[in-house]
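To illustrate this point, we now present one chain and its tokenised fold:
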Amino acid sequence: MPTSAAVRSVLIPAAGLGTRMLPATKAIPKELLTLVDRPIIQYGVEEAVRAGIRRVVLVTNPGNTLTASHFAPAPALEAALNASGKADLLADVRKLTDLADVTTVHQPEPLGLGHAVLCGRDAVGNAPFAVLLPDDVIDAEPPALGRMLDVFAELDGPVLLVERVPHAAVDRYGIIAAEPIGDGVFRVTDLVEKPPVPDAPSDLAIIGRYVLTPDVFDILEATERGAGGEIQLTDGLRRLLQTRPIFACALHGTRLDAGNRSGFLRATIHFAARQPALAADLREALDSVTETATGG
């Protein structure tokens, strides 16, 4: 089945309960927790836009109205900033509103990533699309998703982003078996969700980015619940592999898992260090903490 149509939509699943970050996420969706100067989800949307995708479909739970509102116009705030002469902040707020075309669909129950993708079917339509998991914040140039789109256009098939992980950690990821075909690109020969460590086919873990074809929807509809009692996207992709080639693209950059406490802290430090205005203060603060911890 030809898949050469341009990828114009990205699904961003954001319907989880954020249990790894409680109690911070009791009232605030995890994707809106702030990394330095912007919420986690904004990093993902900015990556998609830099890759050439402006149509963003948020998959949220029915009670979440806050995530979409971050990208919506804020007339009262804009008026206040304008009246107080804060032109730079006003420009930032308006830029955020114009960043992407954001729509929302609901996932009634947290039934897994495969189910979240399936909930976006009507919004995506019969066209190839990307999936971006906001917890995996990626610092890469060119954008990781942009490189995947290049591979998709060249090889005319679904593309997964992968990263080598410690062998002892393979049971936390979807893992692929694959044959290298050059320049960090692989042809996938098998996929398994969270395999026992001795049974993992490799140490290549699927991480947070997918470029998929619409035929995956019919397969996900027929996919039974797997690991964790959820409809796993990896299980659906394994069935899709029986009908078309699937490829993988190795990450060239830094991935930070902002969905847990230690990863969120690392991500905060990473992005603060990238800002010249904050880097010196960050070093001073870390030196002070180190001295205090060591009794210096």
Remarks:
- The two ends are 65 Å apart (CA to CA).
